[in-house]
């Protein structure tokens, strides 16, 4: 049955109406309802064309359910407002027939679709005011929430029993509606923001299985969300957003009243106060809900004028402005400049600042708040009139945009058809006329928004603070997709990974346990961290390396303040962590060393050995002599701080390899000297002074001898210490203290004390791992050896490999005279005449054992270049042509030739010993140069790998020439029998 259009529409919209009307009439015909069309009346048909011109959603619902038109005409539901409580009554009637959860969910969705059509119809035809529309939508949400909750509660109660308090009183959930739902200002396609709470802990009673109240109401909440949010063939009821609850998505789904109150009192932040202004009990136990709102009121509204909120609001205002700029939101009627959000901000700013004293401001709807601002002279009447007019115009525009497809959007359209529809709904003849009025309204809002809590330096500060672009990530709970997009726009390659790292941090137990002040410090710090991470060559790597540190110091937020207030220190931290995971982990484990980052000049200039010794001595002088725990902490801080400075200098390229090892060795020597002094003083205090062989008191006749890397002045990052303890006291004579010991036990306990100070795990970790296996007889020998016994062992018992080790031995701390005697003994043992063939065999056999057990390649591989392929990894230390080969050749040369060239015994490091071999003409200068270059290159590579926390191996095709030179020199000095 054809119909003519009773009103004139643009051709584009007439075509839309023709299409939708034809589809609806076809559905009416199929349903056999054509004879009843006249029952709808001319008024309905006149309005229908306007609604179909404006809403594809309504057209689709009427096509799918043509009978809906007759249902809507009944009781004049399109032409009148529903009475209070009528929405809930209508829903209850529709749900009465539902016996299963599936039927219940279907009934909810069909009810929503029908009333969504009714509300859009009344809005487009202007039979409902703006706030009538928002009230209708909010009432529908309240009714759906309440009746869905009652259904879910009853289902779970039948299975698990009634949740009761510890006193046995029945409990119900309290559902708080936030945002637009709380203020009864829902738009046509709003999410509903909810928080779930229950009065107190307890458990269910009378069911087949008892649950705690927490678990019971968690199940209620999960099922309630699913009933409303899940998309089925019938659509959905409301999209549910739970991110405004404490801790967002990482928090519990439901909270007891006490837990909520505790969270907001101790950790609640200003944006949560801002959000809580609109909170309202929308479903569940209204009486208990009223009690909860009273308990939370002091968090939202301070008792007096809240000047402290002004700065927080300025920050939030700046966030709004930055987000508009960053996202290009000019055409967004909610979020853009002069949009709905700015009107709401103006009202809520006054509420936060003055609401504690002026209870008339403790309201939820924005129009009522604006009226109070005028009535109480917070704002001029003209300003309030302009804001209210603009708000209503913007909300109508928002509804026009969303009515078209029932889609959550506030963006102005770019296509001419949608523009024509919006202009028509808004009552304008053209899009251009509508845009002129829209811009007028938005300009008014923007002007008033700019004047709220204005800061004269606001613009300048914004220009000087690039980190402000990241503030929106930490205010509320942004959508993950938007957050990832923003991170990529800011400079991160993998936005999803960066967002995952930040979420892991914010959900971590340490962050969740932070008090409010600490959390506010974290919120201030994180945007600065992101901004500065984006200055690095690899922002993703910088962030990944620093996040563990931030988590580690979460409960010691003074460190966050340090880095926030010292951007130079934060920059140095990111540079160092980006360059080395070893440094990143070290700082995360021991954040006390962050102080070292405050002075970049000092950071990149490690002190000389005399300065090191004096600095450590001065630090220990400030600690009581008997406070060993504090002394141990001071030693550990000293080591970590100076090791950080060495690593920083190495990374910056200001410290060459040889100097790196020098400084790391000097740090160890300075520490060992003080450790020996502390251990000696402690032993003497307890037991008195031991005696020499002539009966006189000992004056620290004890030395710590370093072997291996520390002896050879070649320490690397993370190296352990190979040590031997030697004394020259009388082992039989007793000490002269209150608890005397014989000398043997005294020196053994002294050695144990030294190892205890070095090895013990404290909150600052260990000083050094100590290896004592190079002492006479190894693990089976005495911990501390007299010089006489040491000499006897070296002269009569020691193996060749032990003499090899002695090449790199030197006194590090203790009695100078005893150290000189040790050096003379070392020279005597190393400089004695040896059978070179036997020596070669012994050295070669020991090297073969090491290679068989430790190398990645079983043989030297000859000189065939094909043996050195990328697939065959090269162990820098143990493989053929590597570090150990060089060390063995140098040690062999010292043992073989120092009897004739005693100058070879002067030094313990491989570089200077090889210089001596060259100067004595024992090894050609060209070969020595190859040896030294290879040794330095290998060690430099090992240092770099250590800083990267990687094993000391490289692809086999690296250092090709160096390896061949070393293998050739080995075959000259220590040829295998088959090569001889």
Q: Can you walk me through this structure?
A:
This protein is an alpha/beta fold. Helix 20 packs across helix 21. Strands 2, 3, 5, 6 and 7 form a 5-stranded mixed sheet that branches. Strands 8, 9, 10, 11 and 12 form a 5-stranded mixed sheet that branches. Helix 33 links the parallel strand 9 (721-727) and strand 10 (770-771). It folds into 4 domains: 81-300, Beta Polymerase, domain 2; 466-598, Four Helix Bundle (Hemerythrin (Met), subunit A) (Up-down Bundle), CATH 1.20.120.1510; 608-830, Beta Polymerase, domain 2; 836-973, Four Helix Bundle (Hemerythrin (Met), subunit A) (Up-down Bundle), CATH 1.20.120. It has 41 helices and 14 strands. One of its GO terms (biological process) is regulation of glutamine family amino acid metabolic process. Keywords: ATP-binding, Ligase, Magnesium, Multifunctional enzyme, Nucleotide-binding, Nucleotidyltransferase, Transferase. Residues 315-452, 847-949 form the PII-uridylyltransferase/Glutamine-synthetase adenylyltransferase domain. Residues 1-457 are annotated as: Adenylyl removase. Belongs to the GlnE family.
